[in-house]
User: Fold these one by one.
Assistant:
Number 1:
Amino acid sequence: METINKTKSKTNSKSKPKAVCCHCKDIEKKAKHRLKINILLCDDCKKLDKYNLLTKTYAKTTYFLEDEDIQNLNFIKAKSTYGMSTYFTLEDIKNIFCNKYAIDNNNEIENKIKELNDIKEKIQEEKKSKRMSKNDKNIMRREKLFNALHKVGLVLRDDSKLCENYINGETKKIKIKDIVKRMCQMKYLFEYCHMDECKQKALEEQRETLEAWYFPDCYVFDEAERMALNEYSYGEYPEIYPWIIQEQTHDKPNKPVKKSKNKNKI
Ligand SMILES: [Zn+2]
């Protein structure tokens, strides 16, 4: 391999004027051009609060400031890893912070930030435990409802709005026994009283009523419920539901009226 030995000629090199730090003006220190603020600074001076830049987001989150606290501050727009960012000097941010939290000594800043962080953490923990306990309550209500339904031979249906609202604590005024009662009625209507057909019939009747320019005097569902009970259950719900009788006697069921799938969300 051939080695090329190059000797740099120094004869033509013109010495550049030395970059001097704008702040300390110490010619011994190497200064660099700081792009964002467009001045020459040495490594020591660039750390000073008046040259140290913080992004807006960092300043707000670290120093517990809101937009209105910093709206009148001088800022620099410059590129960051995330695109264009707004920068403030640490000096300005610290001043704003001291004003906002009534601190007159710069040394107290760290303590105050620690105090604010502790408060923030405490609030977050409280929120978390509140969420947890809400979740626990839901689990408890679900179990209670599941057991209550199970006692009367029903399963907890995922498609039931009524059950869902109870579990989520949205129907505080409705007692569990009323929900169980209604769920029994629904099973009875749909599985023993041809509720789907009755709904269809009620819907047609209401359509006819509307076409004749009258307003129906009740909801389709209520009308269908009345129809189903009248036609298949002597106008009322039984005292003991057929599936409970079956369970109690362990006998073959009396032939129920044709089963229909409950597609209705209640
Ligand atoms: Zn300097």
Number 2:
Amino acid sequence: MEKALRFLTSGYDADIDVVLNDALFSVDYSEMVIVKDIDFYSLCEHHMLPFFGKCHVAYIPRQQVIGLSKIPRLVDVFARRLQIQERMTNQIAETIREKINPLGVAVVCEATHLCMSMRGVEKQNSFAITSAMLGAFRDNARTRMEFLELVKVRGLVAESSMPAAAGLVCVND
Ligand SMILES: [Zn+2]
């Protein structure tokens, strides 16, 4: 159990720069880059029960891109901690902004929380969606819509705007 917990919380010790391992490249490309359906597994910090699902990441480069295979590793860094889904979503987006200063970053996470489904009989099929929209994704409804249509978040009709936060599922009880 100790070994498992060390692994599941190994994100605290991860060095982002080591994870990215210089996989930042200067390119002349300014279209949207999307990595969708990244599986993640995390633990809620209130109950230490798993929450897990898919994470979709997009950004619009200014000068630099991140090696595509590094994006799921970045998600793992923040998922392998005691988390709340909202914070994890923001941390992924903010880290990409910090590292490559893109024109915009969007992160959407959809997850099932065992602290909901194991404890509440009527909530077994519910899931939570959280999003972080920075730069162009925040300012430009068409950009945001293009992203949401491309990732097709389940249960979410991609309209011109995203619900501010569909999360807040892991209540402190
Ligand atoms: Zn919880």
